[in-house]
């Protein structure tokens, strides 16, 4: 009787230990690079007024992909990585178009759920449900 219990118990213990050796996936799809960001600046939507969509255009990331950062000019930490061809909504430009504030869907979610194709009454920080961040200018094909 004790041997019948010992084998399943040992198997359970081995599987538990094997699961512990796997690192937990990051909360974002890119690990933090060089520590925490010095600055975070949310992307603003509705900056073009209440009669236009909250974000001005849908674009595609150029071949080679791009990193998404927490604020324009803040490159100490990568928030996410986007592959070439991924759709992003351009919502805001900063530093003479050197940076774009973008909204993008998380893997496996519907991009129409981001809600940036509709107008908003006043400019405001984007608060979800999709992801947001800042990319360097020149990393997207405008209107793609």
Report on the architecture of this protein.
The longest helix is centred in the N-terminal third of the chain and has 19 residues, at 2-20. Strands 8-6-5-2-9 form a five-stranded antiparallel beta sheet, with no helix packed on it. A two-stranded antiparallel sheet has the order 1-7. A two-stranded antiparallel sheet has the order 3-4. The protein has one helix at residues 2-20; strands at residues 44-45, 57-61, 66-71, 74-82, 87-94, 99-104, 124-125, 131-136, 140-141. It is globular and about 40 Å long. Helix content is 13%, strand content 32%. It is of the alpha+beta class. It contains one helix and nine strands, in the order H-E-E-E-E-E-E-E-E-E. Strand 3 and strand 4 form a beta hairpin.
């Amino acid at each position: 009787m004790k041997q019948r219990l010992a084998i399943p118990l040992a198997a359970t213990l081995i599987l538990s230990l094997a699961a512990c050796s796997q690192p937990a996936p990051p909360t974002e799809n890119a690990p933090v690079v060089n520590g925490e960001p010095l600055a975070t600046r949310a992307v603003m939507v509705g900056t073009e007024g209440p009669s236009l969509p909250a974000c001005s255009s849908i674009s595609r990331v150029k071949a080679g992909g791009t990193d998404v950062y927490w604020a324009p000019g803040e490159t100490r930490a990568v928030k996410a990585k986007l592959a070439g061809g991924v759709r992003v909504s351009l919502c805001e430009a900063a530093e003479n178009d050197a940076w774009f504030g973008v909204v993008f869907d998380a893997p496996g979610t519907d991009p129409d759920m981001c809600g940036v194709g509709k107008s908003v009454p006043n400019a405001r920080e984007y608060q979800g449900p999709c992801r947001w961040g800042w990319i360097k200018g020149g990393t997207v094909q405008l209107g793609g």
